[in-house]
Amino acid sequence: MTPRRRRLILVGLMLLGVAGAVVLALTAFQENLLYYYTPTQVSAGEAPRDRVFRVGGMVTAGSFKREPGSLEARFVLTDYENDIVVSYTGVLPDLFREGQGIVARGKLGADGVFVAEEVLAKHDENYMPPDVADTLRKQGDKRVTTPIATSTVENEAP
Amino acid sequence: MWLWFHKLSSPPHAFRTAGRLRPWFFWPAVLLIAIGTFGGLVLAPEDYQQKDAFRILYVHVPSASLSLMVYVAMAVGAAIGLIWRMKLAHAFAAACAPIGAWFTVLTLATGSIYGKPMWGTWWEWDPRLTSELILLFLYLGYMALRASFDDTQRADRASAILAIVGVVNVPIVKYSVVWWNSLHQGPSISKLSAPSIHGSMLWPLLVMMLGFVLYFAAVMCDRIRSEILRRERNASWLSEIDAET
């Protein structure tokens, strides 16, 4: 075995070892690495009860409610299997709208309502011009969301 | 077959080749980036949801790809240098690091600027964002480790190991949005089905990416030349080059 070959094997083994260690570590910490829980995980009781965590999902169409003169918003978050009611007081991000994916950070109340401290909009990987979006919307493509909620939010926000 | 390899690995030859290739990378890069910028900012239509804010991807996406590609190039260079004891490969790896670090900074900065209006936050400890930040620390660590040795050969070997070990982070950055729930959107182009970005918005991005790659190659030519000069400062061939130019 030439020294060159030995070094090649050594580097290969080193890389393999580190990769293996990282894979093991990431699998072990899978739960802690979880950026957000889905509504299904929350209703299955997998989410922490008395700790702040994040929940992510789609805002159900027609579920957005806000009392006039109030900043408190209520909406239903869904992953198309389970729902969770979210209440949030404050200004929502620009991309917030019904049918949009969002991530909310907060605590689960005793009544099962998720009280959010922060709401972040999650954008999907689709990019298209407005006229293409209109055509898709007419064809009933579910990927395209209509910005209804945003306009009402903007009008009511102080 | 190995002749060109040995020829290229000789510092004087590599020095001259890099100098000769540089304009062939640089000017097309300038042209492509100019076309890509015009196409991205003027010709491409606005996004149906994100309006004009999506246009930051014309800088964000190419610099993010480059931040990963440069790291892989650096690790490959370091591995070749370590295994075949090739000094030029070490010089290549050393020259890669600052460029890659700047691409990473650019990625994080543009992502942050995009994140504030679109997501509602400058920074989140999300898998994609965190792993990209670790990539920056790997670049900085590599450079700091190199700088801590006075002897170039020792710096080469020690830093090569860090570069090779750190390559494990590259697939984590790339697939973080697929493996975990992430705030960051999933891949739009590099997937098996059709790209989920409309053609009128896609072409400036591809032009921009090619421009960034060529720009990297052009800067690389300069950096590797100065790296060779630094390493070979006492060599006799340098005085001959002086006479030539």
Description:
The complex is a heterodimer of chains A (158) and B (245). Chain A has 158 residues and is an alpha+beta fold. Chain A has a domain at 36-138: OB fold (Dihydrolipoamide Acetyltransferase, E2P) (Beta Barrel), CATH 2.40.50. Helices cover 34% and strands 25% of the residues of chain A. Chain A has five helices and six strands; from the N terminus they run H-H-H-E-E-E-E-E-E-H-H. Chain A has helices spanning 3-28, 30-33, 39-43, 130-138, 148-156, and strands spanning 53-59, 65-66, 72-78, 83-89, 101-108, 114-122. In chain A, strands 1-3-4-6-5 form a five-stranded mixed beta barrel. The longest helix of chain A has 26 residues, at 3-28. The radius of gyration of chain A is 22 Å and the shape is extended. The termini of chain A are far apart. The model of chain A is unreliable at 147-158 (pLDDT under 50). Helix content of chain B is 76%, strand content 0%. Chain B is mostly helical and 245 residues long. Chain B has one domain (17-244). Chain B is built from nine helices and no strands. In chain B, helix 2 packs antiparallel against helix 8 (199-231), helix 3 crosses helix 6 and helix 4 crosses helix 6 (152-166). The mean pLDDT of chain B is 89. Chain B is globular, with a radius of gyration of 20 Å. At the A-B interface, helix 1, strand 6 and helix 4 of A face helix 3 and helix 6 of B.
User: What is the N-to-C order of secondary-structure elements of chain A (H for helix, E for strand)?
Assistant: HHHEEEEEEHH
Assembly state here?
A: heterodimer
Please work out how many helical segments of chain B DSSP would assign: 9
As a percent range, the share of strand residues of chain A is 25-35%
Number of distinct beta strands of chain B: 0
Instruction: Compute the CA-based radius of gyration of chain B.
Output: 20 Å
Structural class of chain B: mainly alpha
How many beta-strand elements of chain A?
6
Structurally, the number of domains of chain B stands at: 1
What string gives the helices and strands of chain B in order?
Answer: HHHHHHHHH
Biggest interchain interface, per-side counts = A-B, 41 and 41 residues
Give the radius of gyration of chain A. Answer: 22 Å
Major sheet details of chain B: none
What's the CATH C level of the domain at 36-138 in chain A? Answer: Mainly Beta
